[in-house]
Amino acid sequence: MRKVREVLRLKHECGRSEREIALAVAVGRSTVGEYLARAKACGLTWEIAKELDDAEVEARLFRHVGRSEPAARAPVDFAWVYLELRRPGVTRQLLWTEYAEHAAAGGSGCRPYQYSQFCDLYEAYRSKLQPSMRQVHRAGEKAFIDFSGKKPSIVDAVTGEATEVELFVMVLGASNYTYAEATRTQSLVDFVGATVRGLDYFGAVPEILTPDQLRSAVSTPHRVDPDINATYAEMAQHYGTAVVPARPRKPKDKAKVEGGVLIAQRWILACLRNRRFFSPEELNAALWELLEKLNTRSFQKLEGCRRSAFEKLDRPAMKPLPPRRYEIGAWKLGVGVNIDYHFEYDHRLYSVPSELLGAKVDVRATATVVEVWLRGARVTSHERSYGPKGMAVTKSEHRPRAHREWGSWPPERLVGWAAQTGLSSITARRRKMTSSSDHLRSRRVMTRWMAASGMAIRTRRRMRRRAGGIAQRACFDVPGADELGTASTQRRSARRRVVVSVRGHGSARVKRRPGCPSAGAGRRSGAAAAPGRRAAGSCRPR
Question: What is the DSSP letter of 113?
């Protein structure tokens, strides 16, 4: 219609001849004559035509159906076709058959579209249902993350078996600056590590990370409010960025990285198709060489390249990297604190403040550090132990005061404390500090002497009660005590001396004089010993 309008303007407004109009509009002279004849027949002038749109001009000039006009076709309800195709087992061929049968039985006289034209018209209808919104990416705002569907492979040098590995791709929104590397899996450790190395490659941090909703990034997928993985969220918090995943099955939400994956497949993987690699490190070394070429290759329709656009747009708007690189850690939630204010992680024990006895804490462990968290606050941390299983790592400030003081008193303080209870206690304390093995040996000898002397069990208990409880020190000066074997041998011993030092009750000395009867009279009560029993009252303490 543009040329028809121009023919009418040149004829009625400029007064040009048909030959001049044909040369100006680049159409045949006969065509110009036909247009003018049709306009004259319907009374259409330039003053009227310039107020009408193209459809109205066409309707006035070509209102009569000519021999080249196609015949009318039966209309197609494409909304019905769209809904029916969503039902299982329904195909376009089936719907076209039903449409043709309905058109033939309708009695309208209109012929149905053939199958190819039916499909073309439906595609044109469907393309208008879901228009794509053009996204405007601000500098330094987003980095899009995805894994490639086409995977490189590494070869086992021993068996020759080829194993597929993952291709991680990260693209900045404004400059299309790309990072790629090969990882063994899409697991949490590999995914977080690849993201950290991608940020190191950029040398800066964007405001938002937009990954897919894979399990390593999102623990609970959701269209609106997904639950971000705790470790990945901790990594984002360390770098001061946010994680906003794309919606499930919505690749247009991260169209930048979808295009970046396609470019990486064509310009990186395709270039490595004839090479064999035996480790991920070797594969990444070759991959990063091609990545540098990709980022420095000139744009086809824009000025510069990806790197120059990154230096101009993204880098000035991005945040700097933190001083310390993020170190991935494993979380163990709800770990109980034992009665010894220690908890177990990886078969080793670590201490917490004694006030947290019986509490449930969260443990985060890296390769070097074990951290303890309670209600979102870090309580303490330890250097991770790789010693024998069951080894305990304890901080002295975590112990209660009584536990800290136990075993830390110097000998002078112990002697001073014992002086408050008696001189014999000082002697006993000094002997105890001198040799603990002598103490144990003396207790064994004292017990054997009591049994050998025939002392009644009741009398032994009474002696311990008088002495103040548990015997702390027993020292025997008995000739041949090591050779004491039987009760008869012990009865024939000529001289025995027993010194029992008891904490808090001074010293009780029990001495058996030569000729002291071992049985019979001598009890403090004055009663005679029962037949067959030996009296022990004659050897009582003084």
Answer: P
Tell me which of 160 and 410 has the higher pLDDT.
160
Beta bridge partners of 180: 169
Q: Indicate the pTM of the whole model.
A: 0.58
Residues whose CB falls within 8 Å of the CB of residue 3, separated by 6 or more in sequence, listed in order: 25, 27
Q: Quick one: tokens of 245?
A: 């995943």
pLDDT digits (tens, 9 = 90+) for 13-56: 888 888 888 888 888 888 888 888 888 888 888 888 888 888 88
Given this model, what pLDDT does residue 534 score?
45
pLDDT at 304: 93
CA gap 448, 440 in Å, rounded: 13
Q: How many domains does the chain have?
A: 5
- C-alpha to C-alpha distance for 352 and 278, rounded to whole angstroms: 46
pLDDT tens column, 221-240: 998 889 998 889 989 999 99
- Domain range for 305 is 142-317
In this structure, are 202 and 275 located in the same domain? yes
Backbone angles phi, psi at 164, to 5 degrees: -75, 140
Distances (CA, A) of 2 to 17, 65, 196, 433: 19, 21, 58, 115
* Neighbour-count burial of 179, counting CB atoms closer than 10 A to its CB (0-12 exposed, 13-18 middle, 19+ buried): buried
Domain match, 290 and 211 both: yes
DSSP letter at 110? P
Tell me phi and psi for residue 414, to 5 degrees: -65, -40
DSSP three-state, residue 262: helix
Q: What share of the chain is helix, strand, coil (3-state, %, to 5)?
A: 40, 15, 40
CA distance to 69, 103, 126, 416, per residue, from 120 (Å): 20, 18, 10, 105
